[in-house]
Amino acid sequence: TTIQWFPGHMAKAKREVQEKLKLIDVAFELLDARVPMSSRNPMIDDILGQKPRLILLNKADMADEAVTEQWIRYFRDQGRTAIAIDAQSGTGVRQIAAVAKEMVKEKFDKMRAKGIKNPRPVRALIVGIPNVGKSTLINRLAGRHIAKTGDKPGVTKAQQWIKVGKEMELLDTPGILWPKFEDEDVGFKLAVTGAIKDEILNLQDVAVYALRFLSVHYPERLSERYRLDNIPADIVALFDAIGRRRGCLTAGGGIDYDKVADIVLYDIRTEKLGRLSFETPAAWT
Ligand code: G4P
């Protein structure tokens, strides 16, 4: 689903999330483990304010495990709690309620101190940019399929609480926030990981970005996948080499660069190049 994010839509999305915050104890900030910073809403600290927040690094099944560990440490060093999950298969999802409960322990202890014997379940909300896996996670936590509301801020339906075990309740509509468009790098990373639809950006540009990144950070994966003895430093030469290996030829016998771009992006998104992370904390510390 493509969303047009105009300033008015952003303001409305922010307002809607803040309305929902009034109903909950803890927010789950859903990020893409492969690009945690690029999949983050630029105003998230301002939007969530003091609300307890658990960072969920989703799609960890596709991310470089070592890098995900670095991210978890990075967030911990900032006093935040982050856990890696895979909403699609459910890996890591079971910890969420327990960690959330721990995060709001103080608030609930106070409720008990005031004489409330059986405090209500911990109430939570999932927030994140489109395609980060919000619906998948809601369904996973619910243990059933919950109809997805249109990916448009402003499309509302009656909100309902979904029971997650005995101790947690989740709002069935997530908070949908916009990504950080200002930065060209961010746009490319979101395109490479499939969060931004291909029609928006030029496919060849996205593949150039991806191949440059892989040449530096995962050269051995490229060598292996496309059976290249060495990775040409020149990007056109690299396109040519992959194109020749894959028989991406035009009628005139030249290299079909669109086809090469398609193959490379398909291979990245379907893990044919293995588990990849496109951001490391080093750049942010
Ligand atoms: P959203 O509500 O935040 O917009 O995201 P949604 O749940 O629709 O998920 C977007 C895509 O990401 C879906 O794939 C979904 O299956 C996939 N996804 C979500 N969580 C994970 C995860 O932890 N690991 C992996 N590998 N994929 C995940 P899709 O291609 O759009 O649809 P489909 O393949 O499920 O049909």
Largest sheet, described in full? 7 strands, mixed
Strand content range: 5-15%
Give the overall average pLDDT: 93
Number of strands: 7
Structural class: alpha/beta
Total helices: the number is: 11
The backbone outline, from C-alpha atoms, is: elongated
CA distance, first residue to last residue: 33 Å
What's the Cα radius of gyration?
21 Å
Bound molecules: guanosine-5',3'-tetraphosphate
Q: pLDDT below 50 for ≥5 consecutive residues: which ranges?
A: none
Order of helices and strands: HEHEHEHHEHEEEHHHHH
Describe it for me?
By secondary structure, the chain is of the alpha/beta class. It is built from eleven helices and seven strands. It is 41% helix and 12% strand. It is elongated, with a radius of gyration of 21 Å. It has helices at 7-21, 44-48, 65-77, 95-103, 105-113, 134-142, 184-192, 203-217, 219-226, 235-246, 257-269; strands spanning 26-32, 53-58, 81-84, 122-128, 161-164, 168-171, 175-176. Strands 1, 2, 3, 4, 5, 6 and 7 form a seven-stranded mixed β-sheet that branches. Helix 8 crosses helix 9. The mean pLDDT is 93. The chain binds guanosine-5',3'-tetraphosphate. Guanosine-5',3'-tetraphosphate binds at residues 58-59, 61-62, 86-88, 128, 130-136, 151.
